[in-house]
């Protein structure tokens, strides 16, 4: 860059020649230079102001556009975003068929520690042990004084416990927000719900996951944000479930039973309205799984689904129904009941001597093993197996529970003729109470297959036919007569026309083979009302003993039947069934004069 000199030589020489002052030339050139510099600085400042003005204009334009977008959009709560896979804390509720809460969520807090931030670890350990008695003061102090930088104290605490910990005043004790699973009804429907626990967890949130029951079966649904918190609706009726549990628990205590189970099912849809297994537990404080001994002794064991038993004479109605459907017998066909019935080294006997013969109906009413076995011999092994398979007795329980596949029926390794005979009256094949409920529903609802379910059904889909409507009606009549004049006379509930069949099966020994002489599984399978059945009820007792008489009575007629009758008496009104009262005929009165 060239610059004009302040004292150019040519102008200086001319000025000296004319006698002028050369300093004026320098002053003039200096003034021009300063003026040019000022113009340049002004132009530069004007450019900067223009750029700054454009920047402010763009910023205000963006802010205005954003404000307009927010004003025109649907309002919603802001959500925090994080890099990676976030912990999903929200979990949908579980409700009964009427929308009443069975499982929900509760906002609480967790308690954790930063030991290096503690001022007085000994005092903190002492105070925490006083607030939480299950904690060990010495262990806490050891952890606080060790090398650990982070330590969980409690995964969830109550507001009162939170305030007590806050009053300790230790800067190393911190709280984190936490969502916990709450079962407001306690042990009611515990085996169905199962329970929940924590999966991935951090100080700010935790992942609630199902560990058993429907909580685990539908875990992905309950945790899916796409469902927008829609609850999972079960087929259970909370009121009926609570009443059934109360009655069964009282009956189990009176009958000195080791365990008990009941299933109440809609005979047309397969919806399970109530399912009870005792002993039970509180899913809010789920016990640990047994690591030794018999798992069936654990309160976690679901006897209604996982318990497979030889259920005894309740199977006899399947034998007579199949024989009637095949045209081999009818309700009045006389059956040879002369005993004992010998097959090789096996002998089949009846509980009482019923004489040389009984009608098919009386074989069911009197519960004759010999009569049922002779009918089964006419049916044959292949046809018997196929028929029981059509009722679902050869496959695991299809319920929507993770435990359901473990309820697999125990079948004879060789379905021989003797197996056919013993299975006809409930020995040699083990199944669960849910299997039995589905079988009775399929046989007695008009003869169409029913699949049990724990989900609320909005429509009724008719399954494949297993027997004719006439055979189904004849079977219902037989079961009604069992209650009115047979082995289940204690099961009659005025107004509800109960029909059913008793079953008492000796328990097999856990080791060494054979059966116990004084331990039985007693079962009563019933329907009500028998003239237009709406529900199936199964009540099963494990090792019952009714001891009010001189000798213990263990048969189902003395143990399971009275409990089922009381359960029907309590639950039928809750199910909306009105008792059918026989009104006496009015006697005509004619007035005459004296």
UniProtKB/TrEMBL annotation:
PANTHER family: PEPTIDOGLYCAN D,D-TRANSPEPTIDASE, PEPTIDOGLYCAN D,D-TRANSPEPTIDASE FTSI. Its main location: membrane. The keyword Protease applies. It comes from the Bacteria. It is found in: Membrane. InterPro entries: Beta-lactam/transpept, Beta-lactam/transpept-like, PBP_dimer, PBP_dimer_sf, PCN-bd_Tpept. GO terms for biological process: cell wall organization. Gene3D superfamilies: 3.30.450.330, DD-peptidase/beta-lactamase superfamily, Penicillin-binding protein 2a (Domain 2). Residues 88-223 form the Penicillin-binding protein dimerisation domain. Keywords: Carboxypeptidase, Hydrolase, Membrane, Protease, Transmembrane, Transmembrane helix. The chain crosses the membrane at residues 49-68. Residues 262-549 form the Penicillin-binding protein transpeptidase domain. One of its GO terms (cellular component) is plasma membrane. This is Penicillin-binding protein 2. GO terms for molecular function: carboxypeptidase activity; penicillin binding.
